[in-house]
Design brief:
It catalyses: a 2'-deoxyadenosine in DNA + S-adenosyl-L-methionine = an N(6)-methyl-2'-deoxyadenosine in DNA + S-adenosyl-L-homocysteine + H(+). The protein is an alpha/beta fold. Helix content is 44%, strand content 12%.
Length: 537
């Protein structure tokens, strides 16, 4: 029997996990912001290593500790009940826990953290885990810790640091904490790598917006360019926070970068999420691994405006239902690929560059017109700038659907919702902005009310923020889908101060500014005269 976390039926929920009671960890329980402190401490240890290299070192060890934590908690439980069963791999498989050989367990590595051969021991541990769980982990784990470029002292300190992550009272809590650390580290390394890092990571606030709007409760979820798997993690988290359980959604994805695919597989395993994630270096256009499947929810952040995607074999591809996309830009190829994979009642959220909403180059304007006339565009959201690590190009969200007459919602046929969220978000540093929880809720609540969801309240247009437009109105704007064209200007706040008082105050301020200007001019004139006198002397 294969070991690890496979599910024979990916649409079925896994067996329920048992909650084990263990003693409190000696390490401090996690507190708000500890992920950042942990990342900063780990980042100091990398010294001259490039972030793109070091991220695999750190994330691999966090993953190793995660699976060891899950394994050792179950092992301790079995030792109390049935010591013989504690060494039976099938006992762990039944609980969706990876089998971890003795020499690969975190306790063994922690005890040998100061050994000069720690890199070799880590490599052996990774290979042993892959061998024990081939169906899920073959070719996934990093195993080059023993190379000369990695200082053994640094590795030992990193193991000590990861050993100190606060665990909480239960093994489930421990795994959640490690999952939080892993997710924060992904974002931290994406920021440290800049443009290259952003290629594998979608900012958390953008993912939360997509997930909050689509609400993937049950069914199949798909990402054709899944990066490190953040869309899936947030989708599962959404289900759990709404009272669902792990396995209510079946996850599918594809990724063309092998290194990023490995990150995604580890990211999902850290969260205990089963998924069918395919890799090939040709990508979703040339080699669609899941071409016969249709999905209830699709979430995607494709690379913006890629120009080297075309191949002659795509000329008559059936996915181009609304027109052949231009060879010099894949934006409308992604949109049509995603529509092709939507189930009859499915919905999709896609992140694209702002230019996709208005471009008329080559065939893009014509494809957009056909999509609007086919009524597959449900909602458009203009995002604030500076959200992404990888680009300063302004971005937007496209929400697509196969039908706007879904059961339980109002009939939205012939309408598109436009949301202008460009003024939302807050700066977290000099170059990057994030949408707050309140921002995400405002955007999502507006969409839900517009769709007519039960309990979502009554939708109303809000000047400067949202507008429900008819397809005739969109046609009048030449099928340009930029929200700013539709939402209008924000209403000015009512001012109850009488005009005469406001005018008097403005007049006083203006007189003061004139006086200051005259005083400044006099000083400048005096200074110039002194300079002329000095030069003449």
């Amino acid at each position: 029997m294969p070991r690890g976390r496979p599910r024979k039926n990916p649409d079925a929920a896994p067996a329920p996990k048992k909650t084990t009671k263990t003693g409190k960890s000696k390490a401090a329980t996690a507190t708000l912001g500890f992920e950042q402190q942990m990342f900063l401490a780990a980042d100091k240890l990398r010294k001259n290593l490039e972030p793109s290299d070091y991220k695999h070192v750190a994330l691999g060890l966090i993953f190793l500790r995660y699976i060891s934590t899950a394994f050792e908690a179950r092992h301790a439980e079995l030792m109390l009940d049935d010591p013989a069963a504690a060494e039976d791999p099938d006992e762990y498989l039944a609980e969706n826990i990876f089998w971890v050989p003795e020499t690969a367990r975190w306790s063994h590595l922690r005890d040998n953290a100061r050994s000069s051969s720690i890199g070799k021991l880590i490599d052996e541990a990774m290979l042993a885990i892959e061998k024990a769980n081939p169906e899920q982990l073959k070719g996934v784990l990093p195993n080059n810790y023993g190379r000369p470029a990695l200082d053994s002292v640094m590795l030992g300190e990193l193991i000590d640091l990861i050993s100190d992550i606060g665990m909480g009272d239960t093994d489930d809590k421990a795994r959640d904490v490690l999952g939080r650390v892993y997710e924060y580290f992904l974002g931290g390394f994406a920021g440290a790598e800049g443009k290259r890092g952003g290629e594998f990571y979608t900012p958390s606030s953008v993912v939360r917006t997509l997930v909050s709007m689509l609400e993937p409760y049950k069914g199949r979820v798909y990402d054709p360019c899944c990066g490190s798997g953040g869309m899936f993690v947030q989708s599962e988290r959404f289900v759990e926070t709404r009272g669902g359980k792990l396995g209510d959604i079946a996850i599918y994805g594809q990724e063309s970068n092998h290194t990023t695919w490995r990150l995604a597989r580890m990211n999902l395993a850290v969260r205990g999420i089963g998924a069918d994630i395919r890799w090939n270096n040709e990508g979703s256009f040339l080699r669609d691994e899941l071409k016969d499947l249709r999905f209830d929810y699709i979430l995607a952040n494709p690379p913006f405006n890629i120009s080297d995607w075309w191949n002659a074999s795509l000329e008559e591809d059936p996915r181009w239902q609304y027109g052949k996309p231009p060879a010099g830009n894949a934006n409308y190829a992604w949109l049509q690929h995603i529509l092709w994979h939507l189930a009859p009642d499915g919905t999709a959220g896609v992140v694209l560059a702002n230019g996709s909403m208005s471009s008329n180059q080559n065939s893009e304007g014509e494809i957009r017109r056909r999509m609007v006339e086919a009524d597959v565009v449900d909602c458009m959201v203009a995002l604030p700038g500076q959200l992404f690590y990888s680009t300063q190009i302004p971005a937007c969200l496209w929400f697509l659907t196969r039908t706007k007459a879904q059961k339980g919602w109002r009939d939205r046929r012939g309408e598109i919702l436009f949301i202008d969220a460009r003024k939302l978000g807050k700066l977290v540093d000099r170059t990057r902005r994030e949408l707050t929880d309140e921002d995400v809720a405002r955007i999502a609540d507006t969409y839900h009310a517009w769709r007519g969801e039960k309990g979502a309240g009554t939708y109303e247009d809000s000047p400067g923020f949202c507008k429900s437009a008819t397809l005739d109105e969109v046609e009048q704007h030449s099928f340009v889908l930029t929200p700013g064209r539709y939402v209008g200007a924000e209403e000015a706040e009512e001012d109850n101060v009488p005009f005469t008082e406001r005018f008097a105050a403005l007049e006083k301020t203006l007189k003061e500014q004139f006086a200051q200007g005259e005083e400044l001019n006099a000083k400048i004139t005096t200074s110039l005269k002194l300079i002329v006198q000095k030069e003449s002397a």
